Amino acid sequence: MFLIGSEKRVRSAALVAGALGLLFAVTPALYAQDAEGQDADDQTRPSYVLEREVFDYPSEGRRDPFRELNPTTDVGPRFDDLELAGILHSPTVGSVAVLVDRLTKKRYRVWEGERVGGARLLRVRPTEVDFLVTVFGISRRETLTVKRQEEEL
């Protein structure tokens, strides 16, 4: 049997309407409840358990890709722009390193254990200081030395 274009469309529309009618007729039966208000087919419905996937990245020299690159909110100056201007060394009270930002000429007084930008002051000695510099999750150790008056001239 060959159908003309408009007859094909009419027959297709009738099939779609019939399928929708069947769907709407069956749907209320799926949600039928018994006299106590419980679903009639609770035993036949599958139970779903939602579990969250957890990823653990070993610290074998690789960085966790879901950890933020710069965890500090206060960015501060770049370590490469800092210059050691002086050291106030006191073994009893605590030592302070005085740093100067070469670009802005701003001074920073940093105690042992404090952070300035992406660097943490590890140790202060009478003529030099040790920093742990972290940039994009990679850490390196840097030592800054106080320049003597003769070196500057």
Explain this structure.
The protein is of the alpha+beta class. Helix content is 20%, strand content 27%. The chain contains two helices and seven strands. It has helices at residues 5-30, 149-152, and strands spanning 82-88, 96-101, 107-111, 115-116, 119-124, 128-135, 138-145. The chain has a four-stranded antiparallel β-sheet, with no helix packed on it. The chain has a three-stranded antiparallel β-sheet with strand order 1-2-3, with no helix packed on it. A hairpin with a 5-residue loop joins strand 2 (96-101) and strand 3 (107-111). The longest helix has 26 residues, at 5-30. The radius of gyration is 36 Å and the shape is elongated. It starts with a helix and ends with a helix.
Number of H- or I-type helical stretches: 2
Note the run of SSEs as H and E: HEEEEEEEH
Distance between the termini: 105 Å
Kindly report the oligomeric state of this protein. Answer: single chain
Helical content band:
10-25%
Strand order of the largest sheet: 4-5-6-7
Q: What structural class should be given to the helix and strand makeup?
A: alpha+beta
Query: What is the alpha-carbon Rg in Å?
Result: 36 Å
Total number of β-strand segments?
7
Give the overall silhouette: elongated
Share of residues in strands: 25-35%
Rounded mean pLDDT score: 76
**Sheet with the most strands, sense and barrel status:** 4 strands, antiparallel
Unreliable residue stretches: none
